[in-house]
């Protein structure tokens, strides 16, 4: 006999002797804890004998297909190995069976069939060694072994997966549990929780800790640590204590890794025990303000997170009908994937045609939502709409209906939501709404319905939610926004006019051109565009309207330039970052924005003063020179410390006409345009030079104190 | 010539091979197995149809009031009196837990805590805390669902904005609105399904870039259309002087005839797309003036949004326009309001920013409500991250600033199936870390798509060999936010 088989046959003898011994003294045997892991490996090992024994059977049946002496050797080898694994699985299974929670009948069946199988296979090994003499017996043993294998396997699977795993009992699954006020709380809430979270280990088959939770009797009896609850004393009840232990605690229930009780479920069980743990008490028996009642109600009403769309029983409209009715201005689509219900939206008032509404009769069964807002729907059209029998949402906002025929909608028995905002309907027209059985909400903002109307309407039809929306209070006065200047260019030609506008209807705009702030009474009202005569004018304007506060004052500096020099020469170069479009910048009539000093309309100077020479093709009768500066204190753009105007007949005969020292700012002010004007003596000039010196050191109060400031110039005008 | 042939098939090589394997698989297995078992390697669009919600949506449309630059939660919705009590004290290291800082405060020696200069009070039946800077939003707290525990990984504006809008910190993924347009299509065929409106406040601002409303790898039809902030929100919409509608129609008809001849010759599907776009532009010529004409809005609507709403390009005007666009079926209206980056001068700038947005935001929600549209329109208000509970630079008696903080910030939603008058999540007393119910940006996206009737795991697009989602490989719907 080969060495392997010899070894196996000794091992088989040992294991089976041990098994017989253990079976006889099983009541007295305690398994040492170091053997427990061996027991728990039973599920890992047990599939080996199953597969191998089937292989043995197959090899045996088809043995004719193998030739030569090697077959008997291989077959013997496989057979002994499979018998060995069967014995091992049986032994491990025995150890495992000694653990808690498997006291039931099913386990006994599995145990004895399993051990029986092991013996049968040991017998097979022995018979095979003397096969020549015991041919028939071997065949019988093999057949019986295969049958016992199936039986044992089935018992084992039933133990781990539950008895109704293979053939779920139909009646249990298909009739959902229904309950009402009279159902005992225990059945409605407690039992379902236990079923979901506890039954897995505390059932008739697997009764861990000797605790059976599937029956009331079992629960009352408790486990090996005694009863699991103390009525009226939840905090001393084992079940609550265990549930509240930290998850890593060995005594925490349900054990780590199993589905845990939610805080809500613990709360319900706690409250129920506190209430007396009465298995018969129903929801009805609880006083209205009992905390248990609200807990249970919240639990039973648990919303399912999966969206549960309303089920529609009517047939879907045909694809071609929907296709035919769809156009860019009337869009019809199913409310969701695979839903027969349709929604129709109308868009673009101008494109609306009266017959388009009637055409919807083809889908009158399927249409559940209709949006006609802003369409020219007339009173007569409501009769057409009333034929859409399954309509649930109807939007008639800002349509032309008067409400006179609104009661035609009476037949829309499924209607839930009706929007009438922005129409002329009155409270009287809404009285019939009480006849719509499903109606929940009505939107009546911006209609004839007043707050007092609504109060009485609400009294008549209390079940409806009316939405009156925003009703402005007389006490709420807001400030108007400032007028808008239509002109885009602040440099006016001789023919240019100044124009204002305001987007709100009924606003008046008052303005001044003398630098004063426009007041609400005497300043001129802007009616028609006006002309300015001065070379530099600051126009101030503000908007006013009844029940509104007057707007802020806007201030716009306008410039005019009668004469244009033939050339400009920058005698000092501007800072390279702000060199605009070169010397031409000063006479291109492009005004800069003092908030946007990076714009090429500006020339910026810091290191050197601004110094520019303007020459005219012929002597020109200039009276006023206007230098336009940008001021942006926050960004260190200050008025110059001094401005010098030099004038003469040509550039070689210039003389200083005026030296101006603009007032220095004392604090951070808003960015603005500042103009410096210089009056020239009467005469004709061919050349003018302007020098403007930036501030050398910014004042103490400025964030950039001590550093040099900037001068920004965008235009120079000659009038 | 090869290109033309491929166009004839309108199919790519990969697509073709994918379809072929599916065909062989089906033939081989025939009716023995589920026929779809071996399908699906080829094309995702087979799994769920596009242009229709996967299930019945709660929100048909979204208006996202994006507060660009990250408004401070401590001066708006997050009431943390401990910060006032501990003002000037150092942020405990046990709270900061090694949080990565921006280059602006990383070298700061101290992190002095600073509390809100502005008063807080509770409002409405829900008793939600609100700063005095937002009196109008305080008036509608019972309609809004406040998330206190938004969180992100990004700590600088560009990646954070990009993450918030596209679900990834790097650019070139489709924006939320593009995904919505891709998944649900356009409700109103006369307007772009995804519209973008820009405005700018007086506070320290951060840029907005077109990558925030990009279609990414999706078809270009899903790209956000930016409305001009000038007097005419859509440029070049008017016919040139001297052209009447009939002439325009005739011109388009002739053009489309020429185009269909070109299509017959070349078979390029882009030609058909072009024809459709001309037609849409023609319809927009009638659809848009109705929308952009505010003169028919009643006086008290103007009062509700504030008179600023008549000045084109302001946040208030954009809110009013957003309401009109949404009412007209635009799927996703995205607003950006710049100026919320208060690293310094919190006390000076925050009230101005709040004033710009408070009244119009509240008005938009009220306006939708009174028209019966709030149930089906989801309004979202929030920025790209939060701000620190300590001062950037020294906090003086009168002023302070706050740096970027990714671990927790506030965003609120209203309508569209979210719980009204409800606060979700909680941060610690320092407002620094989340103690309960975090909402990561991916979760937020998953929830918004869910509200729109889209399963974020099934809304995919195959690109460069793998399927992409707005939530990429993360995100779960937060049921606690859904009514």
What is the share of helical residues of chain A?
A: 25-40%
Strand order of the largest sheet of chain A: 1-2-3-4-5-6-7
Amount of beta strand of chain A: 15-25%
The CATH architecture category of the largest domain in chain B equals 3-Layer(aba) Sandwich
Rg from Cα of chain B: 25 Å
Number of helices of chain A: 17
Q: How would you portray this structure in words?
A:
Chain A has 719 residues and is α/β, with parallel strands linked by helices. Chain A folds into five domains: 3-161; 180-300, no CATH class; 319-467, Ribonuclease Inhibitor (Leucine-rich repeat, LRR (right-handed beta-alpha superhelix), Alpha-Beta Horseshoe); 478-558, Immunoglobulin-like, CATH 2.60.40; 561-718, Galactose-binding domain-like (Jelly Rolls, Sandwich), CATH 2.60.120.260. Chain A is built from 17 helices and 24 strands. In chain A, a hairpin with a 7-residue loop joins β1 and β2. In chain A, α4 packs antiparallel against α7 (135-161) and α9 packs across α12. The model of chain A is unreliable at 171-176 and 303-308 (pLDDT under 50). Chain B is of the alpha/beta class. Helices cover 33% and strands 16% of the residues of chain B. In chain B, the strands form five sheets. In chain B, strands 1, 4, 5, 6, 7, 8, 11, 12 and 15 form a nine-stranded mixed β-sheet that branches. In chain B, strands 2-3 form a two-stranded antiparallel ribbon. In chain B, β2 (120-123) and β3 (128-131) form a beta hairpin. In chain B, α8 runs antiparallel to α9 (269-292) and α11 packs parallel to α12 (346-370). Chain B is globular.
How would you summarize what this structure contains?
The complex is a heterodimer of chains A (719) and B (483). Chain A is of the alpha/beta class and 719 residues long. By secondary structure, chain B is an alpha/beta fold.
